[in-house]
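Q: Here's a chain of 323 amino acids. Please give me its 3D structure as tokens.
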Amino acid sequence: MRKEAFAAAALAAIWVMTLMPAAAQQWPDKPVRIMVPFPPGGGTDIQARLLSVAFQKSTGQSFIIDNRTGASGLIASQLVVDSAPDGNTILFTSGSISVVATLRAKQMKFDVYNDLLPVSWISSTPLVLVSHPSVPVKSVKELTALAKRSPTRMNVGGNTVGSTSHLSAEMFNQTVGIKSTVVTYRGGGPAVIALISGELDYAFVTAPSIMPHLRSGRARGLAVTTPKRSSAMPDLPTLNSVYPGFETGNWYAMFYPKGTPKPIVDKLNAEIRKALNTPEVKAFYPREALDAVGSSPAELATLLKQEIAKYAKVIKAANIRVE
């Protein structure tokens, strides 16, 4: 019986291994959901829609954007973790996941390292420090001075609670010694709407979500948060040049649920690289201050680990908590 059981197990293993390449060849054989943890209009959503068109043209299959907001992106992430590992549910999220891993550790019901399978680091973008045109400032130093002498607290916006945008707003308060009220929203789109409507005095927002409003004059750019100036906004200084050591940013990546066959992961990775090289994406990204990356799964895993460690130190030092 033992020999028979061993033989049966061996045959089953061989059968599964032979099916994997076939599954990859057939994928996608039905509509694929791209889960976006944020509302329409933010940097993640904008890219998801652009890439989904490229994927559809390449594979002939539909890629449907599913915006599932809430809990700083954890609702969408959990849905992906709980989905079948068949390649038909993708998580497209931002660098906020590296903040949430620490900030909402008690609420997380999954292990970010073991339950999500890295596919590719898609792109990076600076966060942009912007002010409403009615705020009488044209530089970071002027904003800081105004915030310090203002009789009431100014309102500074971030995207969702636990996003790199939120953390940048908190860090700015601590770095420059002000006490602006940090207001967070359900995503980058709503945060930008609040800024251009005058609900916020200033905000840290992703470049893709604010670029149209910088061009129209409904928002005023003051600085970018990356170490180097953005080629899309060359006139904006870096915050690091004004306040040394102040560096943050945002990145975007795709993950699969644990257990997704490697051939499918590799095929989606190849489709991502192909999409990033299409004329439409190559024209759109630089215009919106996005830098295409297109990494290997291993490179994304390394990035995630490094970013979680970086923001964990900031959260601990600043004693930032989310109720």
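Q: Can you summarize the key feature?
A: The chain has two domains: 31-125+250-318, 127-242.
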